[in-house]
Design a protein that fits this description.
Length: about 280
């Protein structure tokens, strides 16, 4: 079944990784796909790939942290695509840093792109969907939007925001027949783990814990036009999120073990919970 033939999809974060993989998967069905991000050179190459796979590609240069640009992106989408059937609200980034070491600039970037950016895109998408009385909004959260992971606190905060946002939007748009889903991938091998953002080398991670963007794209593709609340991929993500609901402390322990190789020099070897150590500042 070619379910997306001539359907129109707008994808933010479409220049690389998961967004690009979803764009190419939809293109194989002959969909009209508008990819949006900041890097025009990369976007233009994705458009070429979309066209060569049988889709109809367009791109729009956007910084999702700027609401005026997001509004223009949707105006451009209507001009080029005619209407918008699906919005994959996916642009995002993350810094793998603990709360006491992340810089103020990195905090601002994480919240601006992951939270404010996704909110602006959701707002303008919902206005179009409401007019059309049709549409499917898919917001990229993360497994980190359902459980907690040490070293990822600010990213976790941004993605829990998206999980909550998505659930509330679903309730708001239900009367208009608009579908709303959130995507919760575990670790995916993309530029997300580039050296400037992560102190985790993804090639060193247990390969059974890491999936390709194409696997995530297939799950997103399958969920398009269904009323799937939460797209959990890979299946291990389902187990973690289920476990976290009922046994949060056990899941936290599992996550601590998962990242334990990235220990910090100043980190105490043993937890000091249970007794009060003399304060080094006062006793100096
Ligand atoms: N990789 C993982 O393990 C993983 C796991 C769970 C969730 N996720 C989420 O999946 C989404 C996609 O990430 P990815 O793994 O595919 O990483 P990626 O390859 O680095 O892709 C991130 C995309 O976001 C775009 N972007 C970043 N800042 C932007 C801005 N201000 N305005 C517009 N576009 C912007 C980037 O394009 P430009 O730089 O060209 O703007 C790029 O297209 C993110 O929301 C991420 O949090 C990733």
């Amino acid at each position: 079944m070619i379910k997306l033939k001539d359907k129109s999809i707008l994808i933010t974060g479409g220049s690389s990784g998961i967004g690009k993989a979803v764009a190419l998967r939809c293109a194989k069905d002959g969909a009209k796909v508008l990819v949006a991000a900041r890097d025009e050179e990369k976007l233009s190459k994705v458009v070429d790939e979309i066209n060569s796979l049988g889709g109809k590609g367009f791109y729009f240069k956007v910084d999702v942290t700027q609401p005026d640009q997001v509004k223009k992106m949707f105006e451009n989408a209507i001009e080029n695509l005619g209407c918008v059937d699906v919005v994959f609200n996916n642009a995002g980034l993350g810094f793998v840093k603990r709360i006491y070491e992340i810089t103020d600039d990195e905090i601002a970037k994480t919240i601006d792109v992951n939270v404010k950016g996704e909110i602006y895109v959701a707002k303008y998408a919902s206005q179009i969907f409401k007019e059309q009385k049709n549409g499917h909004l898919i917001n990229t959260s993360s497994l980190a939007g359902l459980i907690t992971i040490p070293q990822w606190s600010v990213y976790v905060a941004s993605k829990w925001a998206i999980t909550g946002l998505t659930d509330a939007i679903r309730q708001e748009l239900k009367p208009f027949g608009i579908k709303v889903s959130s995507l919760h991938p575990g670790a995916v091998n993309t530029a997300f783990f580039s050296k400037d953002k992560a102190n985790i080398d993804i090639s060193q991670m247990d390969s059974s814990q890491v999936v390709t963007p194409e696997i995530v794209a297939e799950a997103v593709y399958k969920a398009i036009f269904t009323n799937t609340r939460k797209i959990l991929v890979p299946s291990m993500s389902k187990s973690y999120s289920f476990l976290y609901k009922f046994m949060p402390e056990l899941t936290e322990k599992m996550m601590e073990n998962l990242v334990k190789d990235v220990a910090y020099e100043d980190e105490p070897e043993e937890s000091s919970f249970g007794y009060v150590k003399p304060c080094p500042r006062c006793s100096a």
